[in-house]
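Notes from hallway chat w/ T.B., transcribed later so I don't forget. T.B. wanted the structure written out for a chain they're using in a teaching module, and asked if we could keep both sequence and structure tokens in one place. Agreed to drop them here.
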Amino acid sequence: MEIYDYEFIDGKRLLGFITSDEKEPLLPKNPTQQQIQANKTWHEKTRKILYWLSVSVFNSMIVHIQNAKSSKQAWDTLVKMYNMNTQTHKMQFNQELHNL
């Protein structure tokens, strides 16, 4: 991925949160303390990644990820936006070359 050097997230052993390998532990009707803690830990980690992503992108991109429910959702949005911008720049560059 070119939009963000995700080696930082991988180095924190949290890459699964943006690749969907780490799913949110859903709580049953009467959760155990261990299940509650696992759910809480998952939310803490995904919020941490959301923070890292938000401080790593241009201010103009924050608006697109500020309501993300998970780091995976924010990541996917950024990837989509980056890919669209890259395609737009390529088309613009090609147009400028043809105009020479």
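Follow-up for T.B.: The CA atoms of residues 27 and 35 lie 7 Å apart. Might be a good example for the class.
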